[in-house]
């Protein structure tokens, strides 16, 4: 019987190192779409990967890293990769912790905003609810109105600060992306130049050999 199954992928140590390098460089922890890029970079005709596979492999390596210590890694017999592997995993764990911390802060900020909204709606309702018009009720209404103004001012300032922070983060992200693009472009140009020089040298050598015959 024939079953339509995906070919099983077996990661070797070198494959893991390349995977971890790409995860650190592209940070798919923050941007989930980057997993697809990581898979595309590492894939070959005989080693086809997708976003799910590289993500699951990375998570597995992280869990192993949490359980194992450096001494156990050294006993694996691949001393030359131990330091880089451990360093890369440490960096990825820091990226995960940073992302979790940002999500927690964003959640707390959202909850604070929602609670303030509930409180101000409650105060506004108390302020607008018709009551007996006596002198004792005037300070309470004034307090509610002042609270409403202060809240709206605080909310506006918070939104402006948040947008400013997001804009700065976006600018920094674009700057880093451009720097990476320029670096990749420079490496490609250098590689092309080396290949060109090698080709010229080979043609000169071939020409000399032909003339000597």
Automatic annotation (TrEMBL):
Residues 85-123 form a coiled coil. Keywords: Coiled coil. This is Uncharacterized protein.
């Amino acid at each position: 019987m024939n079953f339509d199954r995906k070919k099983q992928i077996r990661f070797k140590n070198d494959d893991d190192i390349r995977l971890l390098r790409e995860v650190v460089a592209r940070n798919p922890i923050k941007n989930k779409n980057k997993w697809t890029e990581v898979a595309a970079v590492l894939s070959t005709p005989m080693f086809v990967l997708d976003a799910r596979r590289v993500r699951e492999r990375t998570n597995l390596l992280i869990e192993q890293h949490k359980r194992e210590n450096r001494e156990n890694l050294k006993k694996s017999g691949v001393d030359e990769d131990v330091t880089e592997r451990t360093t890369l995993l440490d960096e990825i764990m820091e990226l995960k912790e940073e992302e979790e911390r940002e999500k927690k802060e964003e959640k707390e900020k959202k909850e604070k905003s929602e609670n303030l909204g509930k409180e101000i709606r409650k105060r506004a309702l108390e302020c607008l609810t018709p009551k007996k018009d006596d002198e004792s009720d005037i300070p309470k209404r004034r307090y509610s109105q002042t609270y409403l103004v202060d809240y709206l001012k605080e909310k506006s300032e918070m939104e402006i600060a948040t947008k400013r922070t997001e804009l700065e983060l976006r600018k920094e992200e674009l700057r880093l992306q451009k720097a990476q693009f320029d670096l990749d472009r420079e490496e490609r140009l250098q590689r092309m130049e080396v290949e060109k020089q090698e080709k010229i040298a080979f043609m000169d050598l071939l020409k000399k050999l032909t003339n000597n015959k």
